[in-house]
Specification:
Blueprint (H helix, E strand, L loop, with lengths): L4 E2 L4 E2 L1 E7 L11 H18 L2 E7 L4 E7 L5 H19 L4 H12 L10 H6 L11
Antiparallel strand pairs: 1-2, 3-5, 4-5
Helix pairs in contact: 1-2
Length: 136
């Protein structure tokens, strides 16, 4: 796409090439339904952000997106909005995200979710090894 995009105050032609890799480069795009759903989510997200998809191709363990965007969106903000939006859309569509939902509920209730324990002695002295906290 080599067409300039016009707004009331700008004339621009900004094309970005993004490459996404799934965690651990798993070969998730070998499944046709996963690839199709990913492309649907990309199209929905790009419509909302007023991004034009020039090209969208999936390989077995990564995907290439060639996008045309307005100058009001930085590449970092564009991908952050896009990834959060697609993640939220996919979580809304799936009924089984138990581990993530349980984790979110624990966080809301103030229950500790990390493996690090808060030892009572560490709380008393303000942290182990901190100078001036009473540790000997």
């Amino acid at each position: 796409m080599n067409e300039y995009r016009r707004t009331s105050t700008t004339l621009s032609l900004l094309n970005y090439h993004f490459v996404f890799c799934p965690r651990y480069r798993r070969k998730i795009f070998l499944q046709a339904d996963v690839e199709q759903r990913f492309k649907e989510l990309v199209h929905e997200g790009c419509e909302e952000l007023q991004i034009v998809i020039v090209a969208l191709e999936c390989d077995k363990d990564h995907t290439h997106m060639f996008l045309n965007a307005l100058p009001s969106l930085s590449p970092a903000d564009m991908m952050l909005d896009f990834t959060l939006d697609t993640e939220n859309r996919e979580c809304d569509n799936k009924s089984v995200h138990n581990r993530g939902v349980q984790h979110d509920e624990k966080v809301r209730q103030g229950i500790q979710t990390s493996n690090r324990s808060t030892h009572p002695r560490r709380r008393e002295i303000g942290g182990a090894g901190s100078p001036g906290n009473g540790a000997s």
